[in-house]
User: Which sequence fits this backbone?
């Protein structure tokens, strides 16, 4: 906005909960402008019986200022007869405009009233998205319209510039009719230029390999030096598939052994020093995908494990598709995953509809091999940590709902790592049927965790809390931390889905990897993915930035944020699901996957959560 210092009039009375409505709001205000002592008031933006006029400054209550700017901006749209759409909730402050209509959905531009604390500026966040029509199924065409895929059907390497051009189209069109509005005696102009913000860069991720050799690239590091920790025991690979997928199995074998595409993946032996040959492979014939057939296959795999008790065993299941349309209880994928995981047998699942073609196998084999290696207990690489002896707990949660959508069970898991990215263990923090019991158990188990012998040596701990964790659960976590002594805590709320985006001045408009922007004293926007210095060519879609907020409470360290941001970005490079999987820290990513698996597994009989708490990353 062109004006940043202004006054405006509201109408208020002593707070009365019964009068709160879509026209009367609750805000904290001083009795007299400039007083330090605030209390609750009922606030109306229009004259109302029993309400007294009160003049606010722009900084009296920032939330109130944003709300009234939003209110009068919408009023101006109404007067100009401009079509717009607004959020359904009080705190949305989001206004949307149709940019272009398609048969399958609508291109949308959103304006979100926002105060940029680091610059002390009021304005609007602007972004583009594609809203899919109800009933439409996700496919390539919709992914193209949403800019996730390019016009060639591949990952959209021009995502940032395409997104920017949509915004520019809006600014050159509809925006010219809406870029001014009045609030009392104040006339505001909205700039048609994006705001320039100051950015800094964290250090590049340094990966560690065999013999503690280092490199800036995971794939090149393993190829040059070998994995950080190899697998010493012999491995038995048990393929599970229906007869008609025999050619799929052969194609996968030739690719993993390094014969199909040695240029992109030289083979399990050459790359991971892990033997992979016909003598080490057994097959379990799958008769069908019903529960009985899946259970028979699982029993056969379990028997083979005990027949080969001196070897490590991994099952490789080739399924036609994910059977998304059927329930969890009848899903071949979840059924087999549940049966084998509870018997400590890792499972690698590959889908015929996604993987079984020459081009896909060429580029995905290295990632498939990486997951197999890690699930067997190998350590492909670690990170050079910013802080030694720092424990990192990734906390995620999920809910199990009934057919009516009501929550019938609450889950919370913690993935325990250290700052090098070494996966240590999985902990069940809480599993209860009522919210109150869940929150109490979450707090108690967190205290017990830090009292356990495994974590006594740590003097520092960063809790990475995912966006799936509710505010109630965060309060329960903070209550637990307040009772733990002799350890320095930082709590980071890490959000992948948020309202922020940004562009660089590079000709691709993509920021460099590890770039960060400070939004306020405790909020940052970080590009975990981005341009690589010296290799600025973009070969695939670069992801959105991550929003990180440091939460304050008793027993939590204040300051020193940058070291903890560096550890978070380092952990994005510790993802053993893929060589270029670095969009979010594994503390958050793994915890969310585990919580989702647990919610699914709870549908099966004899589910025992402790069977899934081990030191192998079975969830990769």
Assistant:
């Amino acid at each position: 906005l062109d004006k940043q210092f202004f006054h405006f009039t509201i109408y208020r009375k002593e707070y009365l909960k019964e009068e709160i409505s879509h026209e009367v709001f609750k805000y904290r205000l001083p009795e007299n402008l400039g007083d330090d002592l605030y209390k609750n008031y009922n606030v109306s933006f229009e004259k109302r019986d029993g309400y007294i006029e009160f003049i606010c400054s722009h900084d009296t209550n920032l939330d109130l200022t944003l709300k009234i700017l939003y209110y009068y901006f919408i009023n101006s749209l109404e007067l100009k007869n401009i079509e717009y759409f607004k959020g359904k909730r009080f705190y949305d402050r989001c206004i949307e405009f149709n940019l272009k209509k398609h048969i399958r959905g609508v291109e949308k531009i959103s304006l979100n009233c926002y105060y940029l604390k680091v610059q002390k500026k009021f304005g609007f966040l602007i972004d583009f998205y594609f809203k899919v029509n109800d009933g439409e199924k996700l496919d390539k065409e919709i992914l193209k319209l949403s800019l996730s895929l390019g016009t060639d059907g591949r990952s959209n390497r021009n995502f940032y510039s395409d997104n920017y051009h949509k915004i520019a189209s809006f600014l050159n069109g509809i925006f010219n009719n809406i870029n001014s509005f009045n609030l009392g005696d104040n006339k505001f102009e909205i700039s048609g230029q994006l705001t320039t913000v100051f950015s800094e860069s964290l250090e590049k991720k340094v990966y560690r390999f065999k013999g503690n050799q280092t490199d800036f690239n995971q794939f090149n590091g393993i190829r040059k030096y070998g994995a950080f920790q190899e697998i010493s025991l012999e491995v038995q690979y048990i393929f599970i598939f229906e007869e008609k997928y025999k050619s799929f199995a052969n194609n996968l074998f030739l690719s993993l052994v390094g014969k199909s595409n040695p240029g992109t993946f030289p083979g399990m032996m050459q790359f991971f020093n892990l033997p992979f040959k016909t003598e080490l492979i057994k097959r379990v014939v799958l008769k069908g995908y019903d529960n009985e057939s899946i259970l028979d296959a699982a029993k056969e795999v379990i028997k083979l494990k005990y027949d080969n008790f001196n070897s490590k065993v991994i099952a490789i299941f080739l399924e036609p598709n994910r059977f998304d349309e059927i329930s969890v209880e009848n899903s071949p994928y979840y059924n087999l995953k549940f049966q084998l995981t509870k018997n400590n047998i890792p499972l690698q699942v590959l889908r015929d509809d996604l993987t079984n073609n020459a081009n896909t196998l060429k580029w995905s084999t290295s990632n498939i091999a990486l997951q197999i290696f890690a699930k067997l207990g190998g350590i492909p690489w670690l990170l050079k940590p910013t802080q030694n002896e720092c424990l990192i707990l990734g906390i995620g949660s999920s809910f199990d709902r009934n057919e009516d959508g009501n929550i019938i069970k609450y889950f919370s898991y913690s993935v325990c790592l250290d700052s090098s990215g070494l996966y240590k263990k999985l902990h069940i923090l809480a599993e209860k049927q009522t919210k109150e019991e869940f929150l109490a158990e979450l707090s108690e188990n967190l205290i017990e965790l830090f009292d356990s012998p495994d974590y006594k040596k740590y003097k520092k701990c960063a809790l990475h809390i995912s966006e799936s964790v509710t505010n109630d659960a965060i309060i329960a976590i903070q209550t637990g931390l307040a009772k733990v002594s002799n350890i320095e805590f930082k709590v980071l709320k890490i959000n992948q889905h948020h309202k922020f985006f940004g562009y660089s001045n590079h000709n691709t408009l993509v920021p460099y990897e590890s770039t960060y922007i400070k939004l306020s004293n405790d909020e940052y926007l970080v590009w975990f993915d981005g341009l690589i210095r010296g290799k600025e060519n973009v070969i695939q879609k670069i992801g959105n930035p991550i929003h990180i907020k440091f939460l304050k409470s008793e027993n939590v360290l204040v300051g020193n944020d940058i070291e903890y941001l560096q550890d978070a970005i380092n952990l994005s490079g510790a993802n053993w699901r893929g060589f270029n999987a670095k969009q979010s820290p594994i503390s958050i990513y793994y915890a969310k996957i585990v919580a989702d698996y647990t919610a699914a597994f709870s549908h099966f009989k004899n589910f025992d959560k402790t069977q899934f708490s081990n030191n192998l990353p079975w969830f990769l």
